[in-house]
Design brief:
The protein is α/β, with parallel strands linked by helices. It folds into 2 domains: 5-93, Helix Hairpins (Orthogonal Bundle); 113-248, Rossmann fold (3-Layer(aba) Sandwich). Helix content is 60%, strand content 10%. It contains 11 helices and 6 strands. The chain has helices at residues 5-9, 12-35, 40-51, 64-93, 96-112, 124-136, 147-150, 168-173, 189-202, 217-223, 232-248; strands spanning 117-120, 140-144, 160-162, 181-184, 207-211, 228-230. It has a 6-stranded parallel β-sheet, sandwiched between helices. The protein is rod-shaped and about 100 Å long. It starts with a helix and ends with a helix.
Length: 250
């Protein structure tokens, strides 16, 4: 059974109220159909008319069984109808609707994105990488343990996947199979190593760039097939020396 995208994002309380209301409609329709010998459509119409307290009076139960059943539908149906209505109103005004709408939009974008960059880790380095990509107009997805909270920041338009990047399902949600690059910015070489190994296993053609915290980790990264290893201290030193050289050349 394929679930509707909207249904999968609805709050549990709202799901329960909707299911209970549909159950009342199903039971009421079936009951009136067999007890009063009405068609299914007429029985559904009768049930909705009873539950919503409209009471047109165009269809009435004739026997004791029918009237007794109608009383049960009135008592339970009206209560559940009001409960479902209040749940829906609460869902609309509490901000949950906006959250669900954003979640559905995010899911759609993640399903359609391809040839993008996956940034693992949204610390100082990850944020700078995302800022640079924004300026260059590159497509990217950020994987971070605090994805939900990041979506509420001034950069809420960025695509976040919440979770541990060492887990295959999380990388899969970020579109690893269709990604061109993966950048791992986490300041822990062992974690970066697991991420890279998982990424290459899921997409052997992906190019990987990793931040190394120690020089001795560079060989390990090379062994697992990392495309490029960046040592922040080395980059900083090169920039400093280049600045001195450029200044002396004048």
């Amino acid at each position: 059974m394929v679930k509707s995208p909207l249904w999968s994002f609805l709050p549990k309380g709202l799901k329960i109220s909707v299911l209970l209301f549909l159950l009342v409609l199903a039971v009421g329709t079936t009951g009136f159909h067999f007890i009063e010998a009405r068609s299914y459509f007429s029985s559904l119409y009768w049930t909705v008319e009873t539950v919503t307290t409209v009471g047109y009076g165009d269809i009435l139960p004739t026997g004791i069984m029918g009237r007794s059943f109608a009383i049960v539908v009135m008592l339970f149906g009206v209560s559940l109808g009001l409960y479902s209505l209040s749940s829906m109103v609460g869902f609309m005004v509490s901000g949950e609707f906006s959250r669900v709408r954003k979640a559905i939009s995010l899911k759609s974008q993640l399903e359609n994105i391809k040839d993008h960059v996956i940034i693992c880790g949204y610390g100082r380095v990850g944020r700078k990488a995302a800022d640079k990509m924004d300026r260059l107009g590159l497509k990217y997805v950020i994987v971070d343990r605090n994805g939900d909270s990041n979506n509420g920041t001034e950069n809420g338009n960025r695509l976040f996947v919440k979770g541990d990047a060492t887990v295959g399902n999380v990388l899969s949600a970020a579109g690893i199979a269709k990604a061109s690059f993966l950048i791992s910015c986490i300041p822990d070489d062992s974690v970066n190593l697991y991420i890279i190994m998982e990424a290459i296993e899921m997409n052997p053609n992906i190019k990987t760039i990793v931040r190394a915290s120690r020089e001795e980790s560079i060989k390990r990264y090379r062994k697992v097939g990392v495309t490029e290893v960046i040592l922040p201290e080395e980059v900083a030193a090169d920039q400093m020396v280049n600045y001195v050289v450029d200044s002396l050349s004048f």
